[in-house]
Amino acid sequence: MLDTNFDPKSVEASLYEAWESSGAFKPKADGAPFAIVIPPPNVTGSLHIGHALNNTLQDILARFERMRGKSVLWQPGMDHAGIATQIVVERQLAEQGNIGRRELGREEFLKRVWTWKEESGGAITRQLRRLGASCDWSRERFTMDEGLSRAVLKVFVQLYKEGLIYKDKRLVNWDPKLQTAVSDLEVENIEVKGKLWRIKYPLAEGGGEIIVATTRPETMLGDVAVAVHPNDERYQALIAKMVKLPLTDRLIPIISDEYADPEKGSGAVKITPAHDFNDFEVGKRHKLAPVEVIDREARMTGDIPERFRGLDRFKARDAILAELEQDGLLDGAEDIAHAVPHDEKTKMVILEPMLTEQWYVDAKKLAEPAIAAVESGKTKFTPENFANTYFHWMRNIQPWCVSRQLWWGHQIPAWYAPDGKVFVEENEQAAKAAAKAHYKKDTPLSRDEDVLDTWFSSALWAFSTMGWPDDTPEVKRFYPTSVLVTMYDIIFFWVARMMMMGLHFMKDVPFHNVLIHARVVDEKGAKMSKTKGNVVDPLVLIDEYGADALRLTLAMKAAPGKDVRMGRGVVEGYRNFGTKLWNAARFCQMNECVNWTAFDPKSPKHMINRWIVSELTETAATVTKELEAYRFNEAAGALYKFVWNVFCDWYIELIKPLLNGSDEAALAETRATAAWVLEQIIRLLHPFMPFITEELWSRLGEFGPQRARMLIVEAWPVLPEGLIDKKAAEEINWLIDLVSLTRSARAELNVPAGAKIPLLLIGGAKESCKRLERHQELIDRLARLDYSTIADTAPAGAVTFVHGEATVALPLEGVVDFRAEASRLAKEVKRLDGEIAKIDAKLGNAEFVRKAPDAVIEEQRERRADALAAKAKLEAALERLRAAA
RNA sequence: GGGCGGUUAGCUCAGCGGUAGAGCGCUUCGUUUACACCGAAGAUGUCGGGGGUUCGAUCCCCUCACCGCCCACCA
Fold it and tell me: How far is CA A418 from CA A348, A415, A421, A435, A760, in A?
């Protein structure tokens, strides 16, 4: 016998172990392929609520399709997360009092990172198991493992040889703390309060000055010009004149360029090509060589006055401003708010545009087929509007800087000869051979120190995890994958780049569908953050309420395009649903509704059983349809309602008399039907709540014949045609309405609990009489109606409640607040009057009658007739009420 | 500056051409053997403002206001 509560803690781990060891997570040999590659979590990561959402949705799809008979590959793995991991290990070294990585040396440092990875990395894979994620762990991959690294090398070399990867010296976003370049996407512009200083640049000849405005005075040492707009009348006379750059001996020209905006600042802008992206372009246009004055640690450097050299950029700013002030060259300053580029990880370091040589991928070229594939619908976004986001970015894509000055990552396969010539090959031998061929002799080579952007290897994930570049059965069978489930924040970082790489190397899209889900935020809708202290830890929730409760909560709230609000209160609510289900099963078990042998859902004769089969059939169809459309909330919602509000609230109540009755045939049929419906419920719920359903599957199996298989590999309910029984549905819904109605009447009129309510049927109620007779015992039990007063007219002093054919009449003596009741009735009459007037206006509108569809018009007529009839009855009741009063 | 989304019950949100809905919360009542992690009933809405299309608009179009988010710029 089941206990009254499900205890997730006692079964989750062993159920998971049983699934995994049974091989259920592996793709089966036959069946249509269905593949999902997991968005690889960082090896440093631990499961946060966003992962929980992301992987719950993937798992629902994986389990759903598995049950539908497909051969499901859910490919798991982890990302080496270059920057994040390097930071973690460096911090750990520091904490342990070790020397820094530079002192340690590259080789030794990398050894430490691998050790760290083996010992502490990948906690998240254990946590994903706790969530119930049915990934094929036997195929787990890591972006730095041997196979994936081989894929990376091959891709890099091929792109290089195709001219799609090249080295270039240009401005990049530089992180002075980490000492590496980062891509545009990794920059976070944060609005800060700053000052806009106005600085006088004296003309070289003839006195006078030009005022430039800047937020970054320290870069003035690298100025190569002052630009004004060609049409700016204020400065026409000054174009081509020279100014003396303050604090230096340099003379720089005043140039004319449309970049200068007369509206901004003074209309004259200083041009510092080495330290500003726009200025770099202006400098190029005017063939002005950049002057570098800030070094890679963000200190002042280069051909500048000795006193500034080596100063930190912000100290230099203060010093420069002080001197300008002293020299009378500062023309005031105003406070402004402006966006300053920060590193996206810590948001503490201000990035510096830095002139460096880096490796770039020609993204523009690769983007073309990637754009076309979404345009043609080969890859579809859900929700669709994210395709716009994708298009916008792809059509304006910039060269992708893929080199990073880090150690942890895929080292770039480029070797340099002493003369600087580069040889890009998959390994050192090949590079040496290439060099030998070029120089006609052995030449010493040194390898590029840099590593690749982490997203470079992630971009290959959809095929590298399947064994590419080898020609594996998995690649043949599972590429392209079916659906990629991810959040919108990595559309650019990952989705777009997977599209580019997939199309280039596999000649096909990496996935047919991209399901973009929303963020998880706190109950108030605020972003979760450690500093705010509003972070909800999924592992704590699993401990407290079980993985199923968390999963159902996430699924119920995963409406397309909507943030998922999470608090523990909601999870508690869905945990209650598990208890409800558990107790429904318990009830079934107590009543021996556990024999599921060869039940034909078409066989039941009893209305109630036919009705529940019908309802179940509709629910199963809805759940299937909604899951196919990735509307998890709709699918889960339909099940929730069916289980709680139909199966538990009504069906179980309605069959109690049958289960306790003396009709053996009805008893047997009801037991079988209840058992069958419960079993379908358990199957349908399994993708959402795998643990409780699997547990119920086996526990309920203790009573019947042996279960052959675990629920995880059982079939999804596909119900035959003809199970929808409209007649039964109508009759049972009538019954339910009648019971609700009398309950409502009882409450409203304060009828004492023990007292019966006389039932009165007025006019044309033959069918109702029959129904009443058929369900007399039930109605008596649930509504406590007294049939002795069945009559065809209402006695004076009764209030009638009209519902379809049945009218419930209640004696008023002693139980009714007449005035309140009269006012209620009057109000209702008024409402009906309004409705009738509205319909009359409609029906009186010639155009409506002419143009509206017949069905709509007929509906309006019917509604009018109903309203009129209802009104008449209410008025009569009101009359009697007044008389009685 | 460009783009996307939102504005519906006290709260959180569905609905997206033809009777305004759910969950939670609230009020009242109940609890005879699945479940108090329970059951029943009830109350609450100028569907953000203004215009338009339509026989008919919460729904489609335009516009305004406010709130999110993304991209770009920021002298």
Answer: 39, 10, 7, 11, 105
Q: What confidence category does residue A307 fall into, taking pLDDT thresholds of 50, 70 and 90? A: confident
Question: Does the pLDDT of residue A694 top 80, yes or no?
Answer: yes
Query: Which of residues 678-737 of A have CB within 7 Å of strand B?
Result: none
Residue A828 Cβ under 7 A from any strand B atom: no
Q: Is the pLDDT of residue A733 over 70?
A: yes
| Closest nucleotide relative to residue A591's CA, C1' based | B34
Distance CA A69, CA A621 (A): 17
- Facing residues of A77 across strands? A141
Question: Counting Cβ atoms within 10 Å, is residue A442 exposed (0-12), middle (13-18) or buried (19+)?
Answer: exposed
| Residue A264: pLDDT band with limits 50, 70, 90 | confident
- Residues A93 and A107: their CA atoms lie apart, in Å, by 15
| Ranges assigned E (strand) in A783-852 | 785-786, 798-803, 806-811
Chain A span 183-212 residues with beta carbon within 7 Å of strand B: 184-185, 189, 196
Residues in chain A: 885
What's the CA gap between A316 and A219, in Å, rounded?
9
Q: For the complex shown, is ipTM > 0.85? A: no
CA distances from A766 to A763, A777, A807 (A): 8, 18, 12
Cα A17 → chain centroid: 28
Mean pLDDT, rounded, for A570-583: 85
Q: State, as a whole number of angstroms, the distance between the CA of A560 and the C1' of B64.
A: 28
Question: Does strand B come within 7 Å of the CB of A333?
Answer: no
CA of A568 to C1' of B15 (A): 27
- Across A674-695, average pLDDT: 92
| Strand B proximal residues, A:48-107, Cβ < 7 Å | none
Whether this prediction's pTM lies above 0.80 is answered by yes
Mean per-residue pLDDT over chain A, rounded: 84
Q: State what percent of residues in chain A have pLDDT above 70.
A: 89
Residue with tokens 């009573």: A703
